[in-house]
Structures are given as structure tokens and as C-alpha cells.
Inverse folding.
């Protein structure tokens, strides 16, 4: 088997060149990480989770704080002024260059993990794996969030993929679990995927492959002690000081509203949309309208989202729904624990948490897209569920960037990625043993076609027609449209998952 | 091509037809197992795809993304009062063309970036200015908008460069690459690789999209003209070339080659009167159309009583050049404003009065100035020597294309004449190196264009060219985009400093390979060392320009080498050398 081209390394080089050119792009999250560099560098760990000079307080778990501390040791050499807590909004060119470079450098973890992923695939699937790996590496989501908006998702998802790939061989199961535990101590959003890990490791590592009633005690001990050690390392020192409640209040800010500022495209966005429509329909049906909610809900701002007609949603309900829809696929994983099923259930856990979660940020869609990419090329049925997700997930990220200078980049890059990879995937995905479902395919094509006029309207025409008024309208259209795509692809994938 | 031609006794015409037919449909893929350089690797999966239309949109999106991302960086003159830079010049022209009557365009406040480009630039500025004023009238308000650095305005200006390029340069280049590669039976996939390489050329991106100018409009017209020459559409070629000249006078660098080629194609094998007069008429007509708005505008403004120089009272000012005309012409006659307008246009566009060279440019004069101080010599003498040297350097390539008007030779001829002008003419700017680089770079689409030999020379010229512009770029803080775009291009094409794979190919004489490798290696080493020294060592106190002068010296030597290479390839490819060796004019002339 000859090597397929281009290689991951070649793509990484060209992508890095492009990312360096994006250095001057304006960013809002830039200050967040500068502040964290300053906090971890200049304060003892006991004050990390209490410090609140800046509004961007540290709200990631301890390993991420340590990661920032390591970066800050290098940052000293670049420009020590960025490491002062009171130096708010400080952005000398050294600071910018340094911070942007750290994102590119730490993304090497992702490159390495993807290379491992390709090497772990054999035979005919290898070229497909390479295409999928390149699609993740060049993902517009990572480009927009990390290299323009500014975050370290590349490194985090690199660790996630590393852990997923390690789980592919029996020998790597323990390492996979431990890497995932460490990842949880870096960014707690991955807790949403933890149920899939729990079931998979329980079934394949802690129980005998032959019978679920034979427990492998040694393996259980290894895994448990490893995980306890990792969590102990991360949280132990803070627990010893009695800071855990304070830390938890930072990590899980339940005081925030149901929908995030820009309406992540999940079920609650559709719910809000339906509520908006009900406002005009309700009088005819004789339903009561809460007048105080009519004005607030339209903006969808952070804070309590109130519904005018439909019943309120509580965090408890969100939590229950999430758990319920996570549990369904896990049953199959427990019965048939193959790696493909594992990735599928990780994807479905991501879906459930994204669709039903409380205060979901639209960035969380990567939690679905990236694991799904690894199995999207398994056959055509997987691909047909992946397609609407790829479109809606990336389109829903558009509102993150709003300055005109970055506008063409996000649009052209996303369209480029969609055309390239949907074309390539379409050629590579093998036919399925199962008949495809006719309607779903048509739905997907129609859906993708609608995106073009919608993007045009939301990004250009709306401003031309209405100017600054009705600003919520494009946001609502965009998130409702994306929500339809995400929900549709979720249902489609559920069917594929349970029938294959 | 020889392999494709059938038995020799068939009539010539028919043979040609078969070849074209063959070349169009059944072009065999080269049997290569792995890509020779990274750019080929990126297009590797596209080898099997039959349609260019699947690959082309993706290519155009990627090169567009790199252009726009590079444009996020600063432009020339950003936050540099009092005079700012090229960006302000272009913005100011949009301001004066939209705010002033047409007869004042070439006269208005010449101290502040007075308009000194030919009329098409002025019309282009007018159009962009109109569109921009529709978005925000303050961008181009008279006087008050000078040095305006609104970020939204920057986005608008960057967008105008990209849109202009995508309307002119890129379609022209796509068509040219298609036609030129077919001329040599190059496979479609290979031509796509060449297209990306040409469009990612760092020098054009850095000058147009980062430093800020509209060179690609002029270069696009030149490419369109070359492409029409390749397609044997001589009149279209003339129209496009006049458009290039009308956008930027710098296109004159190519004029002798265009002229010689057109004249040659009218003269050989026998004089073609129809074609000759057709070309002449079309050229004159396009010049007339070009200046028509200016002429009509001058007459119209004069009839409305609008003076071209409202700042002056009293009698009309004498003509800036050709002052003798004043004694023959009646300054009150109805045609006088037109004469004044035309004289002023020529005066602005061709600054005869300025010195031999302005800044530090890697040409002969600047390099020679290090050894002998040129300012001790009278200007007239220098101008005469410069003229003679330029003519001497462009005469051989022009003579060759005149006697052998062979389409395949066009880029070499354009390259050699442009290098001749760049090296020896006066009033050359660093940025003018784009002109000789363009024809050299398009060679990638030609015969053996992506072979190691061609790649190494085209790459050498481009990297050296962009390196000589480094002082210009770093003055406005553009080290990073310079490094990224240059290294990326070198990486994509497998060139030093990222790889040495472009040297040492099989089937070429060892001595030539070693000579090329050593020669280029010496230059690459010099460039690398120069960068290190420039960054970390301060120049001696009494010679603050030492590093720039070193840059100019090395650049001049390398460019002279490129000139000689173009000339040599021209001689080699035209078959003149072998013809002379055989001592008879009976050798078969290449038909294509």
C-alpha cells in the first residue's frame, strides 16, 4: 500500500502558515487567556480560584491552570508585562505573537493523535482514515474558535482523539482511560462524553470479554487507582485547603440561563423559536401570554430565558433529558462493545448533551463533529447522517466572529472545507450493506441547498434591508436552521447506530 | 511532441490537426508514483478527477484565503504621518477622482500624492471611489479624509484589490495557463499544479495585498495579452496591452517584446498587410478610447468655465514640458485645454526630470553607485548611457522574437526584456521586479515547467526577487507575512531553504547540475546570512545603509544571472543556435 497524499504533516505545515497569517485577527477571548497566564504566574495556586480582578476569572479545572502556568514560564521571555494581573486588556505585539504561537504549537498534539489514528487503520480504510484525519485537522470549527477567536481546543481535542485511538487496541485501554481522566482535569466539558467511556471501559477492560459476570479484578484495580491518582493530583491540593466548593462554583456556573447569548443550535433554540411563533398564535387559541417575557426572550441574552407561552425549562429537566438520551445508545455499547460502536456512542453522548444541555455554547458542537468525523466514512449511511451535521455545525459558528475583516475568512474557509470534504467523502465512503433511507437523503440535499440563501441573507442582505434593527432575526434563523440540521442528523445517526 | 507526430510523409497541416486533437483528449498522465514536491502532493488526489471545474473553484478559494489573511496585516504608511504611503496614494486618487472635475485630476495638489499613473488607473479609482462613497462618504471626502485609517476602510480597500484581481488577473491567468500548457501538451493536472504555484507567488501577494497596490490589474492585462498572442488573436493582444499600459506605465517594460513579436508575426513567413494594418488600427483606436474621457472631460469642463488649475489666477501657466508648443498654439483656442491636459498627462506619467534611481534598487545603477559615485557625472550623460544600456540589453531578445515569432518563446522574451529594463533603465522601483518575475513564473505552466531545472530557476528568481523587497516590507513591519509567504512558496515547490530536491535530476549533464546547484546555493546562502546579519548586527555607524547596499549588490548579481538565463533559454528554444551551427537557414522551423 503506497502512502496517500497529502500527508498529515504536509497539511499541518500549510495550515500553520495560514494560521500565522491570521495573527492580527481581532479576538475577544484573547484577554481571557492572558489573564489566566497572569493569574497562574503571579499568584500561588491557593488564590487561583479566588482571584477576580478581571471579569474573566479562571473557570477551567486545575490541569488547565497548570498548563497555563507552564506557558507563562515561556511567556516571561516574550514579554513579562502580560503576566501582571492588573494589566487588563494588555496586548503588545509580543503578547499577541506569543499567545497565537502557543495555540499553533500545542495543536501538534492533535497532529500527532491524528497520525496515530491513520496508523491504527488498516487496509482499505486507511485512505478514508487519512481523509477524515485531514478534515479534522483543517476543521473550520477549530480554525474559527482557536486561531481567530482564540482558545486551545486543538490541543484538547488532540488529547481526546489520542484517548479514543488508544482505546482501539486492547493493550491501550488502560492508557486511554487515564488520558481521558487527565483530559477531564483540563476541561470539564468532556464530562459529557464520560458515560460512553465508563460503559466501554467497564465492559471491555473490567469485565471479561467472554462473560459479563466474570470481573477482572486486577484490571479494575489498575484503572481505579490510576484514575484516583490523576484526580488526586489535580484536585487533591485544593481539597486539602478546602477550596473545592469555591472551585465547583467557578466550574459549574448554574446561575446562567438556558440559552447562551448566541443561541446554540439545539432543541432549546427550536423551543424558543416555537415560543416566538406561539406569541402571535396564542391569542387565537386562548392561551395566556406572560407579557414580561415577550421582550426579553427575543434577544436571547445571557441570564434567565423566559418563555411567553410554552412552559419554563429547569436545569433539572435538561439534566434528566441529557442523561436519558445518553443512556439509550450506551445499552448497545454494553451489549456489543466494538470500537466503532464506542465512537458512535461517544458521538451520541455529545449529541445528547448538546441538544438538551443547560446553557450550551455553540462551540460545543465540536464535541459531536470531531468524534463523528472518525467514523463518518464507515459507509454511505454514516456519511448521509454526517453531512447535515457538518453544514449546520459549522454554519452555527458564524456569529462567533463579527468584525468585517474576519468575515470573508470564516465564510470562504467554511465553504471551501464543506465543498472539499463533502466531495472527497462522497467518493470514499463505501456502499452500505443496508438499504439507505430514501427520504433522509433527500432531506439532506434540500437542507444543504437552503444553507446558501440563508448565509447570504443573514450575513449580507439582512443588513442591507433592515440595517441595525431586528438584529435577533438572522441569529434566530441561523440557530433554528442549524438546530434543524443537528436534530435531523442526530435522528439519522441514531437509526444508523442501532441498525448497523 | 516528437513522440506524438505520425509518419513524416503526411501533409503538414493535417499532422498538426491530429496532434491538437490528440493533445486535447487523450493526454496521457505521466507515470509518476509519488509527488516530487509538496504542492503536487496537495493536488495528488485530483489526478484522477476528469474535470478541471471541480478543482479550479477550490484553488481559487484557497489562494483567495491566503490573500485575505495576508491582508489582515498592516499596509504601507499605516500610522506614518505626515505623508503616509502607497495605501494613502491609492485612497487619495479615489478621493480626487470622485470629488473633482475630470480636468483637474492630473493637476490637483501634486505635492500630496498627485496622480501620476495613466488614465485607466484614474478611471479605476473613480469607480472604486464611487462605490466606497456609497458605503461611507467620509472615506473619500475632499481634504478631510487624508491619511484616514478607519479599519472598515481598510477592509474596503483590501476587498477592492482582491475583487480587481479576481476580475482581471486571475481569469487571465487561468486562460493563459490553459492555452500555454496545451501548446506543449502538458497534462491538465500538471497545469493545475502550475496554476497554484503561479497564484501563490509571494511577491505579488506581498506587494498588492499586504503592502498595497493594484499591480495585478496591470499584470492581468499583460497576461491576457500574452494569452491572446498564444491563441494568435493579435488584435485582442494589442487591446489588452494598451489597457495594461493605460493602467500603469510600467508595462512599457514589455512593450519592445510585444512590438517585436507582433511585427515578426506580420513579417514572417511573408508580410501580412492586413494583419499589420489591423493591429496598427486597433492599437491606435484603443489608445483613443483610453484618453477619450479625458479629452471630452477637458472640453466639457472648459465649456462650463471650470479651469484645470483653479488655484492659479492670471494668465495660463506655461506647459510643464514641451514648452515650445506654447509659441505655436493659441492658449485661448478651444483645443488648448486638451493639449494642456495631454502634456500634463505625459509629464506626470513619465517623470523625466527625476534622477537615475530613487531608492535602493537591485539594478545596475544602484550597484554601480557603490563602486563609482554616479552623482559626480552629469545627468544627461547618465541618461544617455542608461538608454543605450537598456537598448543593448533588450535588443537581442527582441531580435530573436522578431525573426522567430514562436509562441512558446513569449515568456522568455517578455522576461528578458523586462529584466533588461529593470537592470538598466532609470527610475526603477523595487516593486518593478514584479514585471520580470511574472513571465518567468508563468514558465511553470510550459514545457517541463514543473521539472527540476525550470523549478529551480523560476524559484530562484522569485525568492531572490522577494528578498530584494524585504527592506521595503520590513520598514512597515511586515517581516512575518514576508517570511510566511516566502517560506510557504519555497516549501510548496520544494525549493531551498526548505529542500534541495529541485537540484540534481537524472538525464542532465552532471557538470551543468553542479554548476546550477553551486551557483544558486551561493545565493541562497548569501540571502540567509544576510537575514541573520540584518537582524542581529547593527551596521557600522558611518554606513547606516550597509545592509541595504549589500542586498542591492547580491540582488543585482542574481537578477543579471536571471537575465542571462532567459536570454540563453530564448536562444536555445528558438533553435537559432543549432541553426547557426548547421550554417543554413533550411533547418526545420518549429511550428508551434
Amino acid at each position: 500500500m503506497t502512502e496517500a497524499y497529502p500527508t498529515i504533516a504536509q497539511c499541518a505545515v500549510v495550515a500553520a502558515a495560514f494560521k500565522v497569517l491570521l495573527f492580527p485577527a481581532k479576538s475577544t477571548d484573547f484577554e481571557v487567556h492572558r489573564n489566566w497566564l497572569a493569574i497562574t504566574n503571579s499568584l500561588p495556586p491557593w488564590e487561583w480560584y479566588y482571584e477576580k480582578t478581571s471579569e474573566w476569572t479562571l473557570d477551567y479545572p486545575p490541569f488547565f491552570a497548570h498548563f497555563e502556568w507552564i506557558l507563562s514560564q515561556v511567556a516571561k521571555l516574550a514579554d513579562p508585562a502580560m503576566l501582571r494581573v492588573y494589566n487588563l486588556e494588555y496586548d503588545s505585539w509580543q503578547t499577541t505573537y506569543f499567545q497565537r504561537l502557543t495555540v499553533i504549537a500545542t495543536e501538534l498534539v492533535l497532529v500527532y493523535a491524528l497520525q496515530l489514528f491513520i496508523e491504527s487503520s488498516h487496509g482499505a480504510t486507511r485512505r478514508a482514515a487519512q481523509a477524515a484525519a485531514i478534515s479534522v485537522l483543517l476543521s473550520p470549527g477549530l480554525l474559527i474558535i482557536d486561531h481567530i477567536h482564540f482558545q486551545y481546543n486543538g490541543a484538547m481535542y488532540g488529547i481526546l482523539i489520542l484517548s479514543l485511538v488508544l482505546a482501539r487496541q486492547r493493550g491501550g485501554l488502560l492508557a486511554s482511560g487515564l488520558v481521558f481522566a487527565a483530559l477531564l482535569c483540563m476541561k470539564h466539558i468532556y464530562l459529557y462524553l464520560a458515560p460512553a467511556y465508563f460503559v466501554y471501559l467497564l465492559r471491555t477492560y473490567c469485565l471479561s470479554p467472554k462473560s459479563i459476570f466474570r470481573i477482572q479484578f486486577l484490571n479494575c484495580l489498575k484503572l481505579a487507582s490510576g484514575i484516583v491518582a490523576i484526580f488526586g493530583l489535580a484536585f487533591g491540593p485544593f481539597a486539602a485547603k478546602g477550596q473545592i466548593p469555591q472551585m465547583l462554583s467557578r466550574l459549574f456556573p448554574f446561575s446562567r440561563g438556558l440559552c447562551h447569548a448566541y443561541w446554540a443550535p439545539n432543541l432549546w433554540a427550536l423551543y424558543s423559536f416555537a415560543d416566538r411563533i406561539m406569541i402571535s398564535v396564542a391569542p387565537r387559541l386562548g392561551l395566556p401570554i406572560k407579557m414580561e417575557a415577550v421582550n426579553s426572550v427575543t434577544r436571547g441574552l445571557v441570564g434567565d430565558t423566559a418563555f411567553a407561552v410554552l412552559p419554563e425549562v429547569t436545569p433539572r429537566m435538561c439534566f434528566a433529558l441529557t442523561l436519558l438520551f445518553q443512556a439509550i445508545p450506551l445499552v448497545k455499547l454494553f451489549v456489543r462493545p466494538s470500537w466503532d460502536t464506542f465512537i458512535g456512542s461517544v458521538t451520541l453522548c455529545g449529541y445528547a448533551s448538546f441538544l438538551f444541555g443547560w446553557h450550551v455554547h455553540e462551540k460545543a458542537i465540536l464535541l459531536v463533529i470531531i468524534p463523528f468525523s472518525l467514523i463518518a466514512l464507515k459507509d454511505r449511511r454514516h456519511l448521509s447522517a454526517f453531512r447535515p451535521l457538518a453544514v449546520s455545525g459549522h454554519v452555527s459558528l458564524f456569529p462567533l466572529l463579527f468584525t468585517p475583516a474576519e468575515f470573508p475568512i470564516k465564510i470562504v474557509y467554511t465553504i471551501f472545507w464543506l465543498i472539499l470534504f463533502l466531495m472527497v467523502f462522497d467518493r470514499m465512503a463505501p456502499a452500505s450493506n443496508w438499504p439507505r433511507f430514501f427520504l433522509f437523503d433527500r432531506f439532506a440535499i434540500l437542507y444543504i441547498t437552503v444553507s446558501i440563501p440563508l448565509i447570504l441573507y443573514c450575513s449580507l442582505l439582512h443588513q442591507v434591508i433592515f440595517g441595525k434593527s431586528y438584529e435577533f432575526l438572522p441569529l434566530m434563523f441561523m440557530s433554528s436552521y442549524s438546530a434543524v440540521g443537528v436534530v435531523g442528523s442526530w435522528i439519522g445517526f441514531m437509526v444508523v447506530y442501532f441498525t448497523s | 511532441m516528437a513522440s506524438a507526430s505520425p509518419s513524416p510523409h503526411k501533409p503538414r497541416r493535417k499532422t498538426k490537426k491530429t496532434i491538437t486533437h490528440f493533445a486535447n483528449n487523450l493526454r496521457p498522465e505521466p507515470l509518476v508514483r509519488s509527488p516530487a514536491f509538496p504542492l503536487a502532493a496537495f493536488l495528488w488526489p485530483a489526478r484522477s478527477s476528469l474535470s478541471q471545474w471541480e478543482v479550479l473553484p477550490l484553488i481559487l478559494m484557497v489562494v483567495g484565503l491566503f490573500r485575505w489573511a495576508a491582508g489582515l496585516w498592516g499596509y504601507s504608511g499605516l500610522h506614518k504621518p505626515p505623508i503616509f504611503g502607497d495605501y494613502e496614494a491609492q485612497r487619495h486618487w479615489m478621493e480626487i477622482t470622485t470629488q473633482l472635475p475630470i480636468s483637474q485630476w492630473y493637476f490637483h495638489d501634486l505635492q500630496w500624492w498627485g496622480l501620476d499613473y495613466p488614465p485607466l488607473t484614474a478611471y479605476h479609482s473613480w469607480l472604486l471611489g464611487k462605490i466606497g462613497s456609497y458605503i461611507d462618504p467620509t472615506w473619500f471626502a475632499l481634504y478631510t479624509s487624508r491619511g484616514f485609517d478607519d479599519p472598515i476602510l481598510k477592509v474596503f480597500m483590501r476587498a477592492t484589490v482582491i475583487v480587481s484581481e479576481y476580475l482581471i488577473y486571475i481569469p487571465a491567468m487561468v486562460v493563459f495557463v490553459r492555452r500555454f500548457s496545451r501548446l506543449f501538451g502538458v497534462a491538465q493536472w500538471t497545469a493545475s499544479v502550475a496554476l497554484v504555484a503561479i497564484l501563490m507567488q509571494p511577491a505579488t501577494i506581498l506587494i498588492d495585498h499586504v503592502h498595497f497596490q493594484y499591480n495585478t490589474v496591470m499584470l492581468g492585462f499583460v497576461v491576457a495579452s500574452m494569452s491572446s498572442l498564444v491563441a494568435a488573436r493579435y488584435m485582442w493582444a494589442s487591446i489588452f496591452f494598451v489597457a495594461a499600459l493605460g493602467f500603469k506605465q510600467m508595462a512599457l517594460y514589455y512593450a519592445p517584446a510585444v512590438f517585436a513579436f507582433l511585427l515578426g508575426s506580420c513579417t514572417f513567413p511573408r508580410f501580412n498587410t492586413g494583419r499589420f494594418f489591423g493591429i496598427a488600427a486597433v492599437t491606435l483606436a484603443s489608445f483613443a478610447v483610453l484618453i477619450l474621457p479625458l479629452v471630452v472631460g477637458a472640453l466639457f469642463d472648459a465649456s462650463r468655465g471650470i479651469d484645470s488649475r483653479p488655484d492659479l489666477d492670471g494668465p495660463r501657466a506655461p506647459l510643464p514640458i514641451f514648452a515650445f508648443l506654447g509659441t505655436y498654439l493659441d492658449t485661448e483656442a478651444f483645443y488648448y485645454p486638451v493639449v494642456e491636459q495631454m502634456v500634463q498627462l505625459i509629464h506626470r506619467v513619465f517623470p523625466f526630470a527625476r534622477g537615475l534611481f530613487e531608492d535602493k534598487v537591485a539594478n545596475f545603477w544602484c550597484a554601480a553607485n557603490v563602486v563609482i559615485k554616479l552623482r559626480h557625472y552629469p545627468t544627461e550623460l547618465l541618461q544617455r548611457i542608461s538608454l543605450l544600456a537598456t537598448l543593448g540589453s533588450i535588443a537581442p531578445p527582441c531580435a530573436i522574437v522578431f525573426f522567430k515569432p514562436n509562441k512558446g518563446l513569449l515568456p522568455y522574451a517578455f522576461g528578458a526584456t523586462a529584466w533588461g529594463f529593470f537592470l538598466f533603465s532609470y527610475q526603477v522601483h523595487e516593486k518593478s521586479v514584479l514585471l520580470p518575475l511574472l513571465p518567468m513564473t508563468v514558465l511553470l505552466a510550459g514545457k517541463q515547467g514543473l521539472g527540476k531545472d525550470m523549478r529551480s530557476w523560476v524559484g530562484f528568481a522569485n525568492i531572490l526577487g522577494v528578498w530584494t523587497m524585504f527592506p521595503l516590507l520590513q520598514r512597515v513591519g511586515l517581516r512575518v507575512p514576508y517570511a510566511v509567504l516566502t517560506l510557504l512558496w519555497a516549501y510548496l515547490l520544494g525549493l531551498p531553504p526548505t529542500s534541495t530536491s529541485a537540484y540534481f535530476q537524472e538525464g542532465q549533464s552532471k557538470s551543468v547540475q553542479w554548476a546550477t546547484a553551486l551557483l544558486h546555493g551561493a545565493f541562497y546562502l548569501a540571502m540567509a546570512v544576510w537575514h541573520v546579519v540584518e537582524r542581529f548586527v547593527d551596521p557600522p555607524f558611518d554606513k547606516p545603509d550597509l545592509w541595504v547596499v549589500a542586498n542591492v549588490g547580491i540582488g543585482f548579481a542574481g537578477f543579471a544571472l536571471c537575465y542571462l538565463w532567459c536570454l540563453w533559454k530564448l536562444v536555445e528554444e528558438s533553435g537559432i543556435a543549432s541553426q547557426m551551427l548547421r550554417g543554413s537557414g533550411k533547418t526545420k522551423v518549429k511550428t508551434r
